[in-house]
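Example record

One chain of 100 residues, shown exactly as stored in the release files.
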Amino acid sequence: MVRLPLTPEEIERGQRLGALLRRARGERSMLDTALAARVSPETLRKIETGRVATPAFPTIAAIADVLGLSLDAVWAEISGAERVAGPADSAHPLPERLAS
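Predicted structure tokens for this chain:
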């Protein structure tokens, strides 16, 4: 199977995802977070550093669950400027600690 190169938008979205997960993890160790999410610490490290820009949905769902993030909040953060905010967006604001 040939994998197409990532677009600049996908790379940027992956970087935003990594930054979000690092902020949400805070002082919690990468090892503890990865083990609780049932992913390898190497996988979490690659996602957090943006080396894996398009991780599998179940992986992100597991990590988000461990970090107490809703998938709506994750999507709102990583999609950033790619979409225009609408009325439905105000129903799921980012937690204060992630909004900065």
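Notes: DSSP finds six helices and no strands in the chain.
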